[in-house]
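Methods — Computational structure assignment.
A single polypeptide chain was analysed. Its primary sequence is given first, followed by the predicted tertiary structure written as structure tokens.
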Amino acid sequence: MQEFFRVLMPDVKKELRRGIIECSKRGLLHSTKWLAEMHHGLSDVNIDNAAPDDDHSFSECQLEGITPAEYSDYFLAKSYYDVREYDRAAHAVRNCESSVPRFLHLYSTYMAREKRRLDSTTDQANLNEPNQMRDLADLLATLRAEHGRGRLDGYGIYLYGVVLKALNLNKAAEQMLVTAVRMVPMLWSAYLELSPLIMEKKKLLSLQLGGHWMRHFFMAHTYLELYLNDDGLKIYEDLQAAGFNKSIYITAQMAHVYHNKRDVDKAIELFQALFESDPYRLDNVDTYSNLLFVKEMKTEMAQLAHKAVSINKYRPETCCVIGNYYSIRCDHHVAISYFQRALKLNPKYLAAWTLMGHEFMELKNTNAAIQSYRKAVEVNKRDYRAWYGLGQAYEIIKMHYYSLYYFKIAHQLRPYDSRMLVALGETYEKLDKCENSVKCYWKACDVGDIEGIAMYKLASLHEKLGDNETAVHCYIMYCEDERAATDKQSLYQGFMTLANYYEKKCDYERAAYYAYKCLDSDDRKTEAKALLKTIDYRRSAECQKKKSTATVVATAETSSEDEMEWEQLDVRARVPFTSIADTSKTTSTATATATASSSGSAATGASTSAGARRLRAVPERVRRAQPNQRTLTGPTANSTATTPTAATSTIPTISEETPGGSSATTATESETLGDSTPATGTTEQQAAHDSSSMEISSVSID
């Protein structure tokens, strides 16, 4: 902090007091007012116990620069000047040669001509019209001659720079004003005239202003004009820490910083503290009114308007406050009348021109809005609001290349303002320059989307270009933070788009989630309900399809098991027949034949009962579905009764298994046909059946 501000506060206060006297006796009222406010902020610093010599020199400086012979002329001219009779004041000191009366003569001449120009200016006239600047040509010639002879002091050079600037000779004006600042560092008006000529930070840092501590206030003020809010805020915080913590000027400037940063609550808090300490202050009250307008605090705006009227109803700031109050009540015609009244009081009142343009836009009077914004640009070319308003006006009348030009200028003045980037993106999109539009939207998201619509615009553009996947990704990012979305209709549009997308992808959970969110919108409720019905129908269809598939699979598995069981039964009936070739070689006696027959009868009964139990376990639907097995088994059983009896030598070998299988089949057929009587036969019939079965099985095996 010591490196930032190396001057002792008592010395600062002395310089402020000296500056107040010098500016006051020359009629520089705004500089005097500013210096007096800064001086009052250092009330804790005591310099009144100075030495008598210092007091004597301080009292003498009040008449310094005025010769005793010119006292009477000077006092008369100063009294005329104080009551705004500028021509009489200039005439009273026309023959004076000392520095202070001479400056008062030149400055009174300038003020008289400026007053005539402003009085003749209407709200339809051009503020910088050439024929209204002709009166300054004579004064410029006089100042140039005085400067050439070296008769101009720092204050006179300041006036020379002001006249050059009024004639749009900005480069020469900048040189003169820098010289005036170096010669008279306490002249705050010179800093204010120099600041609008600085268009970028690099140029500001290159100025040779000297090492006086007043340059810090100029740097901070210019940073705010360039919308470099963080740099300006840091300087003001350092100045407060250095000892200017009670300065109402710094408090007001910090409120402006937070206003520019759109930290509305903090700005309102600072303004309220400012007006509590200085309740009859009207400076910056228009900015405070704008903040209340943004917060839609109608009651506070009404109270502020009544208070401003009670203080001074003929101040431009008061008219602006009343205009804002009627604007928030949507009474735009009355609001315009008050803004016009403010401009009659001060045709260079920037806020009134800009706000009046906004009101004309609300009334759809595009031509009048364009004229108002152009006047605002003439007053201050760095007012991004006026350039942005011009872009919007030309966008309404479908002149997109014009609007693109004005939006670009607004973006140059506010490179990190997402509103300018979104406006540029929309204009590029209308001009079918989609690549540039995408870049603008992405940059708006990167710098911080103030309005919360950049991502929605980006998603809509990708959807328009057919890039649905990127569009869905952007919609998801946009819909994640519902509170940040200022346009609820756009939010519901995003929800509906996502719901339709996921419904087409058969992701019914997500589709239903986004569709349910649209039920809160009156415009989207019907569409959302229809989509939810579609989702329910498709869900039901899927569930039914899954159930049908499961039933078919279960049926197939059951059928497979039954077929395997039938095949096992058939195989068990045929396996013993494979030994026919071996049985033909064996011989046995009649006694063996009788034994085999009796044993075969017992086996037949057992096999028949077992086979019947197995076949009863088979479901009826399966038995109906297998006609081939029954067809193959039936003829085999029938053929056993008609086939001639084989040789008796073969009977003992097959009599144990074959009749059982045949009898089981016959029993099964009897059950199927409804005959409950079991099939029985004599031993001879069984033997004949076995021989015939062996022949058939032998043929099929071969």
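Note: Residues 566-685, 687-702 have pLDDT under 50 and may be disordered.
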